[in-house]
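User: Can you help me understand a structure? I only have the sequence.
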Amino acid sequence: MPDSPATDPAAGTAADPAPQPAARPRRSEAKRDAILRAALTVFLREGFAGASVDTVAATAGVGKQTVYAHFGDKEKLFLAAAQAAGGLLGDTPDAWQSPLPATGDPRADLTAAGVRILRAVLAPDAAALHRMTIAELARHPELQRLWRESAPRGTLDDLTAYFAERDRAGDLDVPEPAVAARQFALLLATEGRVRTLHGTQPLPDADYARIAAETADLILRAHRRT
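Assistant: Let's start by predicting it. Here is the structure, written out as tokens:
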């Protein structure tokens, strides 16, 4: 008896399974966001040492293995939550938007980018998680390495691309765009944290633009074409 079309490989595409709906990736992304929001709540409430993946999973309404599948371990989950606290989930008007606009005025472009970076770094929850990291360094030194390596790649990649394009256009002399991008972001973050005692004191609105403009000027002077 010949195979039915459902089992005969030569029967064409009739036996092929229906395509999976496109909603699955969106569900996965929504689940990841829910885990990040839950992790932020739990870490800020219980501290790094007191927080557990079980509690985060229960707060997010997912299984513990789902948390591990998305983030790997508690340390990486903590760092992802810190990034999310800075507006990387798109909850704030200053969330990063790619690509970095190029208006033809590098000072204006970098100042605008700098304000967004500062607002992300100094967002209350992001600052609180950064302070928590510092407090945990003696017991969990691995957090410092992970924190250094967890700089938002989209932000640094956009800045790197911007500096590379300005170099190609002849506006600036930037032989190492990735280095310039990292220095710009680190100068902003450090100045903002020092000015606000690591986020424990508010920064006046005018100072966001002032710090960003001063940092942009410093970087531009370093890469001015001679």
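Now, to help you interpret it: The first helix runs from residue 23 to 50. DSSP finds ten helices and no strands in the chain. Let me know which part you'd like to focus on.
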